[in-house]
Amino acid sequence: MTRAVALAVLMASALALQVARDRWYTPPGENAESILYVRSAEAMRRLTLSFTAIAADIDWIRAVQHYGGDHGSTSTAQKYTLLYPLLDRTTTLDPRFNIAYRFGSIFLAEEYPGGAGRPDLAIALLKKGIAATERWEYYEDIGFIHYWRLHDYKSAADWFDRGGQLPGAPWWLRTMAAVTLTRGGDRALSRQLWRQLYQTADNDWLRNQAELRLTQLDAMDQMDQLQAIVSRYQVAAGHLPDSWITLQRARFLRGNGAPVDPTGSPYELDPHTGKVSLSPTSPLRPLPTEPPGSAAHS
Amino acid sequence: MRAVPAIAINVFRESVRDKVLYNLVAFAILLMGASYLIGQLTAGQDMKIIKDLGLAAMLLFGLFIAVFIGIGLVSKEVERRSIYSLLSKPIRRPEFILGKYCGLLLTLFVNVAAMTCAFYVVLAIMIVTQPPQAKAIWEAPALDPALLKAVLLIYAELAIVTACALLFSSFSTPILSAAFTVGMFVIGQFNADLKHFETIVSSRPAAWLARILYYTLPNLAPFDVKAAVVHGQPVAAGYLLLTLGYAACYITVLLLVTTTIFARKDFK
Fold it and tell me: Distance (Å) from the C-alpha of residue A211 to the closest C-alpha of chain B?
């Protein structure tokens, strides 16, 4: 009995001391999560002996956590520094880790601070994937990066075309190649590409990203329509509208109150410039940059 | 050879008494816990990771058993001086070695078989608990029988490691035997590098030595088909047979060397 009490007291004391230490001192190595002890993927492959697959899984979990942590962080420190090394190691340890290539292609290429802003690394990762297992999805993803991030429509069309020639590739990939060449930068084509990605995405992260982009494109369409209404009002009234209510009173716009974006946040109208924009609190911010005239065909 | 089964069963009983089978509980808890937790962390890769984890844990647990029990098979008998009473009976020394080896193989077999059953149960639970969207991206069926190919090769790999442990324990101390056996396991993973040694060294004798080592040291890397079966890649029957044949030959060589060393050992 005495022994049990002593054990309980000692255990409670250890717990209390740990809580006190954590509260008053920063434990050494607190930022260990941001350290990658073995940078070389090849060295890691050798160190893990025949446990490479499980080591790849651990790196994959770390990559997802690293991205999620940095994405949600308000810190001003450089973000996503380990994303590429972790994905590179993951795919060296398990070259058939399909989702790691596709995840990397989206979140490495994504503009900073939403992603790492490194389309070059995203393409390098996907090329590594093609060398390991030639899947049409990797060609589609490289084409997509050229299209969406680099606005290089000729290269995008080339990668779509090469992917379309692979056995098992869907028919629309070659059509996409032709359409990209003729209508590069078109918002409708962007929508089509994101929709394809949404349908072929292997996990919720990619699907959510595609869904966000599709919603942003919808919002951009709505903003274009609102901008056109503002311009029409300016021509008719000879001055800019000072608020949405002015437009509604003049019957240029239906409804009451400010029009809202697809997430329910009100659009803003600058009375000095007449520019329509998203609310600073809208979850759709920041909108992707489009090449000039991209909405013209949509 | 009548003594071999009796010795083997005794080794198995002893390992049960030593609570070796407790690792099965650890394996089951690890898999069950992981299957619950991993879904929150892996962004849709639950099935792949559970399969990887299950197969890796089988190898790791088996490796611990093969090394830490294997090195004590002979030395324990010598330490306890029970070897004198054993060898005074009509048991030949090769029978003693073979019996010990078969006993540990039986222990490993029971372990691997039980772990495989637990593994398939967890995979079956995942079929029930996973949403259809997650199932759509599985590269191979959850209860893929091809996983058994990986399990079979893990068992064959463990059989080689056990034979190594027995060999070292026949002439060395338990600590050194453990170090040598783990060393052999590690070397076995890199053996293929020795095959192309001449491409990085200009010395002809060094290249020849590397080539000799390539053929004499155990080559364990081909036994690793875990990633292939998890990704639904085919593992040819011919490959399986050749690898198992290699294991059988190599084990026989190791046991012959062990019995030769043990036969010359003076226990006075």
Answer: 16
